[in-house]
Amino acid sequence: MPVVIVGAGPTGVTAATRLAQYGVDCLVLDRWTDVYPQPRAVHLDDEIYRIIARLGLADEFAAISRPTLGLRLVDSRLRTLAEFNRDPEHSAHGFPQANMFDQPELETLLRANLVRHPHAELRGNAEVTDVAADGTRIRVTFTDRSDGGIHQVDADYLLGCDGANSLVRARIGSTMRDLHFQQRWLVVDIASDANLGQWDGVHQVCDPVRAGTYMRIGPARYRWEFQLLAGETANDFDTLDKLRPLISPWTSTVPVGELTLVRVAE
To answer: Containing domain of residue 30, as a range?
Structure first.
């Protein structure tokens, strides 16, 4: 196999698609069979949009994304301190400069596109357990999680797209620089058909007591992020009633029955 890619997230599937477009055979291995269902990343810029367009997915991505107006820095009373505008139409790269999206939707789109390319194969339930140089090639060992079978595949090149806890990075002796970020943040995703009547961009709340972020991801999806204070955990905010004091500056006029809590995470 010319190329083996470990990890079928957005990076791994994008790399596989680009290789396949050039006629390079590649195998993508991922320990899971399906797209991870929880929202995580929500924004990409016009340069990443160019890559998506090169995959042949510009129109499909436009249908599931939402161009946004930029970023506002606001105080604790949501008064604007500064504003950084982004073009929601077309930048020098040909696409909106700031785009909100739902990561599971994007990953589903990328995987559906990958199967159109005969030079690429995605194998789920394949947990890579070892990577080793074997002469001029790389030997990748993985376990089929469906039956426990152990398999090996040799490749000319190996791409490690397996995230922050990368086994590939560990096996090849590479390192990741740790910036020792100490802050703990609460991430809240809420679905609602209600229009919150806010400026259609990202709001960064510059509150010295509790910093926060608000953004509209899609027609019926909103995200808030709040800095957790000492002693607080995500479990302290795992219901809409517990979240109300934090999100009420944006949702005070919306009945609680029109809000659906999708995810709370730290």
So the answer is: 3-42+102-172
